[in-house]
């Protein structure tokens, strides 16, 4: 019997996710089901798994505990860790998946020594500290303002990806398993009482919908495996790679005969995903994949099983680099999976779990693999509870793409898949474009067509929904019915996501056709909660300056309206495009000033008006992220355009400037000013001189320390001496803080105090060289167009290199003295 025939009914009907919800926020309840899958859109990750206290992986409002929630509607998450991206926490039963939270409660139930676990965590925190992490890393590994959620312009108040009313935060917000919800209203116990009620009945409730139940011995075995995999000492695994591989092999033997039960169990599926990530033997991964081949139809429709399948698919790159036999075995099972998914694609595309698996396999066939992003920061996260925005930033962008050259087999299979699903999908495109589940598959289809250069197929697919005709002059036009359909999708919570994908991936002629549809209704679209993001995508995806002029003509008279309604991002994107194409610069700045400066206001205060941009400031922030980015953009415009805003910035009150330096948003503006090569050295020196008497308060701040580092670097000799004198006078105060210690080292305060003549000679030499070559090399080291610029640049590099070698020993001694001074 063929795979298709054998599993056709099961593929169509099976939905083996555990369905019992229960518990309230931060409580385990009666364990409930694992819940739905969580959103998969742009922000990264799928949202939370739902709490152990129940709740759907897609729906935050039924989620239990600290986790749950979905990335698309984090406001409704039960204590939701889902937020913008990442898995979120496991819920009240275990806290965050990566930060154990209350997870030790379950380990006590499993006869683990919780005190030993806590001691291991304490050892881990202690061992990770050291001179470099505790002293020279002023931000202690997790406070780096470059990673601060508020400093990234894309995480600003107006960015729908972080905004609570984000349509993306609703795009894949699943409705949850509401069929079996008897525990939700009954569970009124306290969190402590619920944590003590882990028993066999609760375990049975978790698996009430499964075909049979995973025995407690197997589940306990996987719990021990998880504990072994997570044990670390001094930041390293307690087991070597050989021991881990032996353990993984034993896990494979343990799962034989109960693959479906293990993969569909909430707890054990987590362990399997960790194992696949840690496994380094491609043959072992393929054995797991092959063992699942008989139950793939069930797994892809299950909230837990689908994650296990995708975890295996993320290991594709490891497998493809192994021997031919292993690769062939993997490809065979992969093609079996694909055939099952496309056998009845009308059901696959509307299944909330299978659609994500289909998206993953289609991406693999095109030559990309979604893999877990490596984390640069190896320090453990802080114990304090983050606010919602910080949780979102911490969890975002969990996955990234790894590219590889697809084999001819993959290319052929991709063509077969696209041909097979074309007729059904295109006939239902208008309907699917406003539904939740199909969006992921539709997005991936157009992204794959774009990535693989299938331009004709792309036009064929989009033409089945949005038919664009071209006259003899190659001018695009569309029918009114097509325009109406496209507008309906743009203004839809889910359709707008698909429309953005189309705009970003469309060939130039198709993009021009889509622009024709919207150009006369830009203001109306910008006012819409969802469509305004599609307009932003249009601006970001501009391909020619003429297309920019088309857009600006429809928007230039409405800047004030955009700002009043909190759509400052539209203005920001238009300014970025103007600066990119060096088109319409003077005009757009004049329009901006008219919109920003209030009645009776003055251009001399334009910088402050932008930083406090009305209706575009988050309630949790002192300054407007959008306005700050616009101000940074204006610094990059030609001098004749930017001179007024630069003068306005320099002339601000010193108290206001200091507050900027020690603010996560404002410090980025200060850095942009100091780094800008178009701003003269005299203007920068004038700004730096205003901070005399305030360098200590700036230097002890985690954000201000970046600014003072840049100030010291570009200051002349006399200004450096002023800075050094101020810092030396408050050396003890600065030394008491990590940021301050870093500033003391960067500004060479120890050398200034003990070897002032040597310090003065070195800084004087640097200052004289810079002034001597000021006609050739500007303040920031940028070459002029002189014929000798290359030679001078090379000479300067060689001189700097030799000087570094000469001073290496002295610098090391200074650093050691600073870091060892604290008693």
Automatic annotation (TrEMBL):
Pumilio repeats lie at residues 516-553, 690-725. Pfam families: PUF_NOP9. SUPFAM superfamilies: ARM repeat. Residues 175-192 have a biased composition (Basic and acidic residues). Residues 35-70, 77-95 have a biased composition (Gly residues). Residues 1-105, 127-199, 373-401, 773-823 are annotated as: Disordered. InterPro entries: ARM-like, ARM-type_fold, NOP9, PUM-HD, Pumilio_RNA-bd_rpt. The keyword Nucleus applies. This is PUM-HD domain-containing protein.
